[in-house]
Amino acid sequence: MSANKVTVSTLHKMKADGEKFAVLTAYDATFASVVDECGVEVILVGDSLGMVIQGDETTLPVTVDDIVYHTRAVSRGSNNALIMADMPFMSDATPELAVHNAGRLMQQGGAHMVKLEGGASQVEVVKRLSELGIPVCGHLGLQPQSVHKLGGYKVQGRGVDAAEEILSDATRLVEAGADLLLLECVPSQLAAEVTRSVTVPVIGIGAGPDTDAQVLVLYDMLGITPGKRPKFTHDFMQGSDSIQAAIQQYVKAVKEGSFPAAAHCFL
Length: 267
Ligand code: KIV
Fold this sequence. Notes:
alpha/beta, globular
């Protein structure tokens, strides 16, 4: 392993030292190599690929085979970044299924960690994966795989009960062995509270400036996603003369805390 390789321990040390880290999605070897060379610590092979690569309306049709294929390409293209692969819809519905499918993402795809959506209902799954030595990132807040139950892509954790549920889910996932957490579209104040209350690094998207790290979908931050861009994204190509310069700007803005700004956050 090269000395610059990012590991789960690197990210935990960064949290302990108060140093923020940057996460971006990538789905192919060329972009993975650019993102890696620009100093992004974690590359997420997200099931957002169902929407931005495959053109579907949701992430639900994405399969384990799809994620294995794209993760393998990303792992060939990157050198130092930690590669996190999403567990697709229903691929983690039981501990047995999750072990089988996470094993494929790591063995066939070359992922270093898996990410899965869900709180209390995923405690047993996270526990089993963790016992078997599979690093896990728990995804709380807006869970796009539940879009039909939620009735749309809406901010989560507003109101006392909803906020308490997310705080409790965060604690339970970490106690079960989650190595990282990701919070999507929650009020900034709640994200700050979760980040303070857990020992593991928290990655945010639409979760305000106080999480330990930020993630964006690559095509959103390059300003090439068609249609209306979500409030929490920013087009880093504005004022940059190359893709590399835009990604470097993103990394710098995350590390110095200037992204996200108030305009990207939810109350
Ligand atoms: O699939 C994905 O890209 C994600 C991010 C939006 C966090 O889960």
